[in-house]
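Let us practice reading a record.
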Amino acid sequence: MRAAVFNSTKPSPPYLALTDIPSPVATPGSIVVKVLASFVATYAEEIFNGTRTYPNLLPYVPGVGAIGVVKSAGPDVANPLLQPGSGLLVFCDCTIRARDDSYSTKLLLQGLVAHDERAQKVQSVFRNGGWAEEILVPAENVYPLPPSLVENQKLTPARLTALTTLGVPFGGLCDGDLCVGSTVVITGATGHFGSGAVAVALALGARKVIPLGRSPARLAKLGKAFNNTPRIAPVLLTSEPATDEKAIRAAAGEGFPIDVHFDILPPSASPSLVLTALHTLRPGGTCILMGGVAGDVPIPYGEMIFKGITVKGVYMCERTHFPKMLGLVECGLLDLSMFDVKSFRLEEVEEAVQAAKERVGPFEHTAVVCGEL
């Protein structure tokens, strides 16, 4: 089968070798999926040029998540919807968790990163990601997509790869116990995953979502994506913490405290932004950390105690969350049409990587199309 293979870091493109590799074989507990489309992370080039020193077994096929159809299934796969010939599209979640250690926090993100030796042992089996004609995936990571979800909105495989984007904040906000009627402040809201967090928070019933950002244009684009609904109250940051905290509280509306702070800032962001938003939480509020901030965040110890603040770190999305997210897409509460999808053929994967690094604004999405039905 054809695949885009990453052999080693290079200072400049081309980073990948488009070549033939052996097709995967479905073993017990796994499924081989014919890939139709796969997501391109905005920071993919940073992995390939060594800016992000991700510990992976080389060579491997990149590509985070996939949309496709089941080609073959292991002998113990019992779900009839995950058998060849079911006629359904499937979504492949990239987050592979240890089957033999429920407390392990080191996970394999298939096609992206294996964090340590344990994750690399899993990677040795599920080595390759979605930039190939076929992919081997653990059976529990494959989700059949109901026909109504695909047909009602006429969703293409390339557009459906946005499920990978939405799954990240969906996992965080669900684990943070976001309730209907909550007021949510989001740091990192104008980026690729942050804009997805705004969409998820609204779909889950937040009364007010307060996206924070430094770009007026990106904040305006974010509001426009939701027809400038009053449920979104953007705040333009000033770099003055006291001023920003006051603006955030005002955006919540008089008489409404801030229940949840969701952070999904990139590694380049200042840790001080997390602290600014944390200060605005009501007593008993929750801070969900899901971003990539490189530095440490100083915790206001006394304030945390007296206000009873919960700080929770969340990494990716649990398996039980995906069916709920698919339900929100199927009924239209999560609208994939808001994504500006730019797709490339597998042969154009280098162009896709370059395009993705420029397409980092709200709902800008890049995909590689690897095959057809």
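A brief commentary: The radius of gyration is 20 Å.
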